[in-house]
Amino acid sequence: MTLEERLWKTFNKALGKYQLIDEDDHILVGLSGGKDSLCLLEFLARRSKIHVPRFTVEALHVRMENIQYETDTTYLQSFCDRLGIPFHIITTSFSSVAVPQQVSPVSHIAVPQQPNKPACFLCSWQRRKQLFNLAQKLGCTKIALGHHQDDIIHTALMNLTFQGHFSTMPAKLRMRKMPLTIIRPLCLCQENDIRLYAEQQHYEKQIKQCPYEHDSNRTKAQDLFDRMQQLNPEARYSIWNALETEDKLIEY
After folding, report:
1. Could you tell me the pTM of the whole model?
2. What are the φ and ψ backbone dihedral angles of 70, each rounded to 5 degrees?
3. Which residues, including other chains, have CB under 8 Å from residue 142's CB and lie 6 or more apart?
4. Average pLDDT of the chain to the nearest whole number
5. Cis omega before residue 105 (within 30°)?
6. CA distance 141 to 70
């Protein structure tokens, strides 16, 4: 079995196992321009042509004015054009200065903006807000994000180590305050497989990487996971089994 065949099989396994796509879904993909979101969009576009279930896909790229990284939006546009996927670009920014309370785009709970919030948190929060706003404007039923299995495991380790609870980004999360569901169709795919596939497909890399990319607790969790796999090559599957056993991968 080739790498592409293995990834495609794993992708479709996740769709079925976690019931990620339903008939007549309208899905908005968060297209960052990285390897994961490009792979996700390619596979969803391919899957939509099978017509069982029947669903449509659009993509959104959010440009953050005050973060010094750069993605070739001309490439992203041509990538979407080749797949026959409508492409949207929104330019926005965030401020680390304290402002009045705002409503979280995920939970509709008031989230005070604090001066000491890290740039990664504020940037991610603003991107998610734009995704939710556009999804509702377009009448989408689901938002698809490119997190793979490694991301989900890293988040579980972060929450356990720094927050004191066992939880993670679920493969499927139904929102309580709006008619939207977040799905992560790459949830069973391993990062190394996606990285190799991106190289085979000649995905273009970002022109400039985010300066905060390696300055977070996520990097520490990734290092921890690497050490765990050195202790036990099956650590990935042990953690994943624990997440499934505790019903952490689907939230309604």
Report:
1. 0.89
2. -150, 135
3. 20, 21, 25, 26, 27, 28, 180, 181, 182, 183
4. 88
5. no
6. 30
